[in-house]
Amino acid sequence: MKIHRRYRPCVLTLLLAAFVGILDLSARGEEWTGPLAGWADVQKDFHATGDGQADDTAALQSALDSLRDQKGQTHALCLPVGTYRITRTLALPRKPGREAIGLNIQGADPDKTSIVWDGPADGVMFDYGAWYSKLGRITFDGRNKARTAIRHGPEFVTANEMADLVFRDVGFGIEAGDPSRAGIAETSVQRCKFLRCSKAGVSIQNFNSLDWWMWYCLFEDCCVGATNSYGAGNFHVYTSTFRRSTEADITIGNTGYFSFRHNTSVGSKAFFVAAGIGAGAQLTFQDNQIIDPADAQAIRVGNLGPVFLLDNTIASRAAVTEGPVATGPNAHVIAVGNTFTVGKPISFKAGSIELASRTVSRDKMQLTVPTLPGTPPCRQRKIIEVPAGSDATAIQAAIDAAAKLQGQHPIIHLAVGQYPINRTLTIPAGCDLQLVGEGIPYNTQLQWTGEGSGPIVQLSGPSRATLCDLVLVGGGKADALAVEQCDQLGGRVFLDQVQVDGATDVGYLIDGVEQTQVQLRDCGHSGNKIGVKVVGGARQRQGQATEGRVVLCSGASSNNDLSYDIVDGGRLLACDIWYETGSKPRFLHLTGQGEFTLHGANVAHPRQRGAPGLEIDGFRGRVAFLGVCFTQVGGDEGVPALVVKGDNPLTKVLALGCHGNGEYFADQSTKARAVGLDSVQYTPGGGAKPIADVGQADDAFVTEMLGQTREPHLAEREDVAEGRTDVRLSRVFIRNPRIGITLTPSQ
Fold it and tell me: How many Å separate Cα 256 from the centre of its chain?
């Protein structure tokens, strides 16, 4: 049954509280550990002056050339405080092999370290081809002459981090490829500022420029903040602030799946504009705050959608009386829990879903623009150096020494090299050390050489440890990392840009964790038997509510036998995750008990008769697919991607606003409640057409099935109290383990 209802409370007073949803805790307490021993210095080693007067182009280029080593040895480079004037494009190309891989280029602080353009008009400041690399803490000042601060290409690159960069007075801050060059994928953009970019802050420009994740960024006085309108590709923007965009905060032309969650826009012409096109784009707008857009239509969608509008607030200017959301006549809209200041706020295709909309007087709102996290400081911690090639005994001795510095957050630095580990490295409970390597995917490698299944590293709990820029190699038999006794109310485990590849059992195993908040951000899992497995604890097995949440928000994956498994009451929300394979027909097979939501995803795989890619067979609980793209990559024709089976009346499945090839949703169950709404089928030539609905839905069912993606998942707080887990992993790369990462409530 189609739903189209609007609810308007009789009391028109609303206090807009703090954002609800997937709130990221990473910025709290974060710090910078560089520069470390072995890093090159552009002033000391390459004679850059940094005085803003001399031409530092040759010195900086010499420094960049030194990073490209034919043998795969990589280095880190620091730009001390200074203003580095350049007169021609700096280039760091990627060539075949391991050149320009695993690099780390950092300034001292973006407020004190800048590269300024004094070359020809419309020049490019930095042609950047590094991959699996980090670039940060620098201001790129185009002085209203440079066309582009950072341009990628022509080779394909992936797994980069850009953090704490400032792009000022340029045309484009970042150009991610173009249609005639290679794509640039899986890039994490964190805490960057885009100021007065006359074309766009971030421009995604190639069909293979996919999975760009922007977190905690500021876009101020730009023409457009983030876009793919100059080419193609997909991206996501989270918890960022836009101010006074002259065209729009976000625009797209070519379609795909996109999400914009927990952002704030103030005084821009529009928040989002999608060009007219005869294809669909799965668009999620969740918990955004849009304040005083200059255009009456703050969100304009010209493609087929579907458009998810969940818990947004649009505070229109006083003169605007209707229509802040405008969609085309063929676009499906799913609007739930939104707040507006005008009547008739959304234009609908007939049969679209609208639930719990609110209209509130503009002068009754209390709107607050959140403060974005700043650049992490350098705390000058005690550093314990471990020589390259050291064994487990030497590394454990360094850990034991660091444990005596409790409360000082000491750093154990492992230089580029291979470290044979024949026994488990154990970090004691409560120890707040930082175990820091020199990058992925080959740089600092801890390789298991012992007997048994390890683990390579064990965090005794409750743990306060931080691990970053490390590679853990299990050799097909050892577990990589075990986090023990990590289940306390108010605890957290935060994984940023972590990748697990080739696990013979499970990539990420969250086993019985009911109270600690677990978040994976920009993470991946590829070539594993099971990518992510969530096992419920005692209360979850009984169907009781628990405080803990497991959230995978943004990432990319491939070639798993199964990507997700939920058992014994486990709960998992996965958002904005790309999956592709040309050889593995299975993606998901749920037979146990729990709850799973996949919201915003690409699932591309071959289809095989007798082995449905997504099979829900007697599962006891809720399973929701929201804005998922089911793409067939070869295999048997006429096979649905998603099949519901079994005779369990507790099975509830909703596929809402999904895309795909063929009739991809089949209900073969006898008692399950299986519903497919607002689906679109691809047509030859790149278009799409609607698919008939499956099953019956009402208001209560839709609201229930959206519950997991709409509920609060992490509570923002300054610190995690002593005695509770506070584990942070950043850019940890795990290869060929038995189990990659295990989280357990006990030893």
Answer: 16
Q: How confident is the model at residue 660 (pLDDT cuts 50, 70, 90)?
A: confident
CB 228 within 8 A of CB 207: no
How many domains, in total, are found in the chain? 2
The rounded distance, in Å, linking the Cα atoms of 645 and 618 is 6
Measured between alpha carbons, how far is 506 from 739 in angstroms, rounded to an integer?
A: 5
Between the alpha carbon of residue 712 and those of residues 310, 336, 651, the distances in Å are: 13, 15, 24
pLDDT digits (tens, 9 = 90+) for 238-290: 999 999 999 999 999 998 899 999 999 999 999 999 988 888 889 999 999 99
Separation between Cα atoms, residue 371 and residue 431, nearest integer Å:
30
In a domain, 141, yes or no: yes
What pairs with residue 111 in β-bridges?
none
- Asked if 514 contacts 539 with a C-beta cutoff of 8 angstroms, the reply is yes
* Domain termination residue (choose one: 364, 390, 416): 364
Measure the CA–CA gap between 120 and 745, rounded to whole angstroms.
60
Rg (CA), the chain: 25
Cβ-Cβ contacts under 8 Å for 596 (sequence gap 6 or more)? 564, 566, 571, 572, 573, 574, 588, 590, 621, 622, 623, 624
Separation between Cα atoms, residue 476 and residue 469, nearest integer Å: 21
Q: Domain containing 274: what range?
A: 51-364
Rounded-to-integer distance, Cα 259 and Cα 541, Å:
32
68 within domain boundaries: yes
Whether 310 is covered by a domain: the verdict is yes
**Quick check: 71 pLDDT over 90?**
no
In this model, does residue 16 exceed pLDDT 70?
no
**Total Cβ atoms within 10 A of residue 41:** 14
Q: Which two tokens stand for residue 250?
A: 């976000």
Residue 266 one-letter amino acid: V
pTM of the model: 0.95
> Rounded to an integer, what distance in angstroms lies between the CA atom of residue 621 and that of residue 54?
66
Residue 718 has pLDDT above 60, yes or no: no
| Spatial distance between the Cα atoms of 323 and 320, rounded to a whole number of angstroms | 8
Element (H, E) at 64: helix 57-66
- Position 124 in a domain: yes
Q: Looking at the predicted structure, is the pLDDT value of residue 168 above 90?
A: yes
The pLDDT score that the predictor gives to residue 74 is 56
Which phi and psi angles does 723 have, rounded to 5°?
85, 0
Find how far residue 188's CA is from the centre of its chain: 7
Residue (of 548, 24, 25, 522) closest to 262 by Cα position: 24
Mean pLDDT of the region 627-652: 92
